[in-house]
Design goal:
alpha/beta, Rossmann fold, 310 residues, seven-stranded parallel beta sheet, single chain
Length: 310
């Protein structure tokens, strides 16, 4: 496929400009803010590069869309896709970043950091026995690249992570993988649930009242997409102790409104969608690799299956 004109927008556009112009001076780039994108840009460009479609987005003459993030729900959720347009996503260190995010909060809990912080504030010398991570039963929803990386890191601590996916096919680093319909077999015994799912029609509000009712005093981490969780059901699960701790890097409405009760729940930790951030270097490297493959008609390692949504 011939790609000559490339429209780059989103929060990294200015930082990407210098690198891309140096490395591919043969291409015509437009680097603009999301607010500055106009209708003419879509008919000028062969390719659109950004974290999401701008509000005025239309396909125009675009033949390739490249997401600067790992997820592509911003491009596909509740949108019609033009079938002859290629959609790719950025692949980088997201799995490693998210694994370390999860491990940091798991160890914080199991090593009783908050308990000791409180004792220190009270000037009390009270030993509390920590819990070994390898004793924990961890269930990971999502067995793709990111889920596999989380499982791989947990294996290093002696954990035998269980995976849940739509298909139930066995994947590397998991002790066993179950399908979503088989999840009831493992959920009641879980100590930790890690949600690392994309947002699709199949995963929207997958974590609902029925799901939470199967849990017993579980820690729930969501590093996938906020809309996979029914937040009303999550709140009830927190109140009923089906969940003892919820760590949410993603929520259904972002930024989380100041009026949301989740902000002040004592058993909720909120971070602003930072478990995995796209660096300029990774964004540029992945984009250029993909561009080269498209130009040479080579297989794409990061092409999105539009039907599946990932």
């Amino acid at each position: 496929m011939k790609i000559g004109n490339i429209l780059v927008t989103g929060r990294l556009y200015a930082e990407m400009a210098k690198l891309l112009q140096q490395k591919r001076p043969d291409k015509n780039f437009r680097f603009v803010t999301e607010e500055a994108v106009c209708r003419d840009d879509f008919f000028w460009a062969d390719a659109y590069v950004g974290f999401r479609p701008v509000p005025s987005f239309e396909f125009g003459n675009i033949r390739w869309v490249h997401s600067l993030g790992a997820g592509v729900d911003a491009f596909l959720w509740n949108r019609e896709w033009k079938e002859d347009v290629v959609l790719t996503r950025t692949i980088g260190s997201f799995g490693e970043q998210i694994s370390e995010y999860c491990l940091s909060y798991m160890l914080r809990d199991l090593q009783c950091h908050d308990v000791y912080g409180w004792y220190q504030s009270q000037r009390q010398w009270k030993p509390v026995a920590p819990t070994l991570l390898r004793t924990q039963r961890v269930v990971i929803y999502g067995t793709g690249e990111i889920g596999q990386q989380i499982a791989r890191h947990l294996r290093l601590f002696g954990v035998a992570p269980i995976g849940i996916s739509l298909s139930g096919r066995q994947k590397p680093h998991f002790s066993k993988v179950f399908s979503v319909t088989q999840a009831e077999e493992v959920l009641p015994k879980a100590d930790w649930i890690i949600a690392a799912l994309p947002l699709t029609k199949q995963t929207y509000h997958l974590f609902d009242e029925r799901f939470f009712s199967l849990l017993n005093n579980v820690c729930f981490i969501n590093v996938g997409r906020g809309a996979t969780v029914d937040e009303v059901a999550l709140w009830s699960a927190l109140e009923n102790r089906h969940i003892r701790l919820a760590i949410l890097d993603v929520v259904e409405e972002e930024p989380l409104p100041p009026t949301s009760p989740l902000w002040q729940h004592p058993n909720v930790i909120i971070t602003p969608h930072i478990a995995a951030l796209t660096s300029v270097e990774e964004a540029v490297d992945c984009f250029l690799q993909t561009l080269r493959r498209i130009e040479n008609n080579e297989p794409l390692f990061n092409r999105v299956d539009i039907e599946k949504g990932y």
